[in-house]
Task: inverse folding
């Protein structure tokens, strides 16, 4: 099969705070798992992310902390990058839309997008009324306004999107709007902005989204949650959206027009362009020419996949594709993979929404001071909110680590490798002609590799992990059924056949678990003496270790976790 080419992105986190488990579960862990799988398949992949530094979120946070916005965004850009690395999420580039080494290219490419779309006539210049904070003496960009959603009636909706129902918000229509700066009621005043005429692109967007319902060869259908929401928005009619803001922090509007002075591009216009500008910076650093980004963004042979949280669906499945269509020179996303929100439940408490302000979160930085990354990666995949909201239940996290990772997967590795080291001189024993039970088990290895491949190709990460664990449990069942501890007393050759099959299972599990549990897979590869490999090739999952292959000393893959430790430190 010819090598495929992929450009994978994860949604840009705001550089105004730390990362918690909800962030990782949504747009980052599944993307990393997919990238690791693709690389194991030998595909050509670039994995792009970085912080969203522009716009109101950073300004609000900087104001609250009494820091300059430059200082705050740089601090959290570095903190987030370190957290991602520590949890095993490795981007090819982790940029920042206003970080010193990225801002020049980002502004250049963002302004080019805006200028091309403007010259093609997709913007309309309008003077309208917008909310103005008299006390602060400034117009209020979207997220400087909160009020009651006019769509679902939820309180606390921001002026760009209601987190409760997901609709795009017109801040002028918010019920009982309040400025987040002074907590006073703003008044409407006139200002001029450039609006993207999304209505002109409705039919093109609808046809494109409808095409994503079909499963073509090598192209899985999009998730129903993404398509149903996006097509529903088009059915209601897409409004014009202002793509400029009255703000002094962001990408300057590139127009020679007096009305453009003191205005910047809307953060949701320039943020997705960060995917492009970070790719350009990566190409500049690796190839010496930033324009090589076109190989990834303008070549139809490259598949572009966006991993996002559900609250970003409207922007990645509608607004961003509309911008790309209007610009006309870029490929549209091949897939938009959205996960729902992750709630949290602490022992003795009710399930609740993860909240930075209320402290109802497990912070990645704090978690990793006490525990290893793979149990978290495992649990977040096992409960992945792929089609609906799910809950990080701390008791369940502890139980699954101890009952599944430790007792099923870890136990199978330990009992197999310990037995081989003790009774077969630390080498893979030869195998006699396999009996039906042995052949059936070896067939299960091949079947698991096939099922996991199918599920990963279709972005069904939770199902693929279930396939992996089913093989680990099957390994334990096979071990118990063959009873090698009895075989070694009167049938050493048959015992060797059993342990050989178990070691082949361990080898398969090592390869197949690497995208999900990379740290544990590295340990397992060391125990199997597979040599130094940056990536375990996916195809080797069903390649058997030869008789006589030397093994290393077994080590414990997973530790028993204690909830008291978690509550005592990680949730503070």
Result:
């Amino acid at each position: 099969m010819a090598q495929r080419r992929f450009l994978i992105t994860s949604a840009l986190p705001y550089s105004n705070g730390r990362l918690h488990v909800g962030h990782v579960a949504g747009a980052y862990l599944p993307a990393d798992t997919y990238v690791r799988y693709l690389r194991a398949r030998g595909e050509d992949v670039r994995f792009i992310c970085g912080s969203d530094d522009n716009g109101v979120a950073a300004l609000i946070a900087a104001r609250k902390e009494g820091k300059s916005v430059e200082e705050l965004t740089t601090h959290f850009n570095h903190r987030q990058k370190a957290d991602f690395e520590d949890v095993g999420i490795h981007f090819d580039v982790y940029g920042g839309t206003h970080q010193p080494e990225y801002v020049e290219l980002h502004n250049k490419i963002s302004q080019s997008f805006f200028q091309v779309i403007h010259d093609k006539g997709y913007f309309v210049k309008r003077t309208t009324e917008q909310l103005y904070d008299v006390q602060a003496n400034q117009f209020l960009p979207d997220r400087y306004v909160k009020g009651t959603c006019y769509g679902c009636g939820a309180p606390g909706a921001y002026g760009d999107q209601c987190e409760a129902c997901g609709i795009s918000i017109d801040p002028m229509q918010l019920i009982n709007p309040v400025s987040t700066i002074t907590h006073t009621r703003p008044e409407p005043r006139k200002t001029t902005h450039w609006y993207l005429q999304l209505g002109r692109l409705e039919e093109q967007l609808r046809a494109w989204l409808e095409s994503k319902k079909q499963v073509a060869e090598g192209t899985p259908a999009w998730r129903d949650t993404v398509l149903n929401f996006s097509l529903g928005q088009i059915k209601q009619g897409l409004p014009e959206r202002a793509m400029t803001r009255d703000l002094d922090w962001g990408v300057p509007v590139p127009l020679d027009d007096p009305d453009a002075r003191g205005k910047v591009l809307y953060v949701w216009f320039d943020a997705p362009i960060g995917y492009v500008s970070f790719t350009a910076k990566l190409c500049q650093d690796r190839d010496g020419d930033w324009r090589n980004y076109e190989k990834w963004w303008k070549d139809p042979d490259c598949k572009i996949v966006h991993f996002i949280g559900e609250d970003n669906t409207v922007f990645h499945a509608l607004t961003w594709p509309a911008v790309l269509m209007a610009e006309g020179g870029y490929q549209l996303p091949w897939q938009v993979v959205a996960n729902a929100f992750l709630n949290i439940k602490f022992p003795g408490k009710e399930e609740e929404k993860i909240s930075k302000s209320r402290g109802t979160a497990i912070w990645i930085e704090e978690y990793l001071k006490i525990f290893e990354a793979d149990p978290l990666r495992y649990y977040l995949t096992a409960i992945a909110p792929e089609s609906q909201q799910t809950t990080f239940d701390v008791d369940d996290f502890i139980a699954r680590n101890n009952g599944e990772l430790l007792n099923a997967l870890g136990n199978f590795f330990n009992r197999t490798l310990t037995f081989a080291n003790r009774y077969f001189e630390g080498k893979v024993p030869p195998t006699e002609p396999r009996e039906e039970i042995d052949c059936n088990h070896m067939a299960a290895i091949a079947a698991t590799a096939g099922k996991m491949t199918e599920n990963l190709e279709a972005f069904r990460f939770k199902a693929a992990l279930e396939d992996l664990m089913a093989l680990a449990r099957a390994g334990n069942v096979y071990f118990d059924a063959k009873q090698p501890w009895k075989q070694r007393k009167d049938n050493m050759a048959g015992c060797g056949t059993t342990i050989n099959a178990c070691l082949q299972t361990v080898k398969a599990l090592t390869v197949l678990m690497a995208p999900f549990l990379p740290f544990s897979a590295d340990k397992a590869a060391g125990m199997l003496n597979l040599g130094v490999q940056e990536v375990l090739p996916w195809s080797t999952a069903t390649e058997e270790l030869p008789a006589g292959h030397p093994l290393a000393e077994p080590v414990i893959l997973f530790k028993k976790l204690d909830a008291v430790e978690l509550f005592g430190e990680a949730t503070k």
